[in-house]
Design a protein that fits this description.
Low-confidence stretches: none
Shape: globular
Number of strands: 11
Strand order of the largest sheet: 1-7-6-5-4-2-3
CATH superfamily of the largest domain: Type I PLP-dependent aspartate aminotransferase-like (Major domain)
Number of helices: 14
Helix content: 40-55%
Largest sheet: 7 strands, mixed
CATH architecture of the largest domain: 3-Layer(aba) Sandwich
Order of helices and strands: HHHHHEHEHEHEHEEHEHHEEHEEH
Length: about 500
Amino acid sequence: MGSLPVDTLRPLDPDTFAADSAAIVDFLAGYYRDVDKYPVRAADLEPGRLRKLLPEAAPEWGEPMERILDDVRRDVLPGLTHWQSPSFFAYFPMNASAAGFAGEMLSVGLNVVPFVWVASPAAAELEGVVVDWMASLVGLPERFLFSGGGGGVLQGSTCEAVVCTLAAARDRALGRIGHEGIMKLVVYASDQTHATFQKGARLVGIPPANFRVIRTTAASGYALAAGAVSAAVEDDVAHGLVPLYLCATMGTTGLGAVDPVRELGEVARRHGMWLHVDAAYAGSAAICPEYQGYLDGAELADSVSMNPHKWFLTNMDCCCLWVASPAALNAALSTDPEYLKNVVVAGAGGKPQAAAIDYKDWQISLSRRFRAMKLWFVLRRYGAGGMRAYIRRHVAMAEWFERAVNADERFEVVAPRRFSLVCFRLRQPPRPSSEQSDDDDVNRELLAAVNASGQAFMTHFVVDGKFVIRLAVGGAMTEMRHVRDVWELVQRTAEQLLQRQ
């Protein structure tokens, strides 16, 4: 098909839709077939590369799909970091799957906007079903299910979930002390907590000076100690401040640390704080019974979040947020203009039905995507048993890598492995003090050289002043051979660096 003059443009012509969609599916199938042939990280990191390749203005007339895909292949793919590469070990995994893609296609193709019940009742109801399914799978208490008085919603990201829960906690507290008391509210987290909580606190009006970053230590496995939180809270109360919100994390970004949810929950209860459990990455592992103990004490929490788009084969974007009190969330986020009110819903014969859910009151934006479709497809297509096997396979790969690091005296594991994340570094051999170079420098060089090779991609963290290399296993296409290959690459690269010193 050639150019499309405006007077013949039919954007949803079924035949054109089928042909263009088939071309995209074929393109992606070829991409996944060959993704391991691309350098994992974008080879050219110089800003402005793509702008130089593309025209300065949009085309006047439409172009054939084949020509557009040729440009994607030639100009776009070389500038991508390939997150679905089997040798991608950076950040945390961002999973994709055939089932997730199929659900996403249906979601995008149907293109409904379920912000209020009548806007698409089945979309809202399916969302309620899948968040209840997920809550049960990860072992959350009944109070987070709709049947237990709580409920869940699919947000786009943890960042959105954090802002929503902070707003709910803020309004609940200000209802007690008055709105003029906002400058007294204090949020607590550890030095391992994701920085999105600091960003979220600013967005809801908490003064940056009222965000407490509490130090963790190697002795606790870098977990947030309840005693340290209590001491910080009591000091703030003595100075007339009001404890507002406490974050506990299951699987911190840097090291995979796990905070003691029950102990922190008891502190939060004593001081009337909102307790949020951030399980963005490791919450997926909680579908396995052996990891559900990490959520012990969740009945003391006000909210819990986890991201199926990280390690649960659900294509971006999809974050489960559960709250024990939907009313508290809705009070902070709801709007009720006449044009958004539902028509009265009645059952057969005029009998009342279950309460309708207006998910616009559970999130920041009004418009929302039909995310439930792709999570439902993943759960239906692979099943709980299949997903448990998937998680355990990645953990087994990380266990192997940890053993390999420990067996090589040139390296050290910096923190105990949690889930499928291994944090390690290269030791410097003993040298005279006059010749001793910085351990951090050699580890920076090691990571840079591995990533520059294009054969793998990892990221870093800094803990106790040490530069640490992170290997996060979790790709949908990653197999044991890829983990062995990256370890051999690390060893070879380290040997070359040490020989030059």
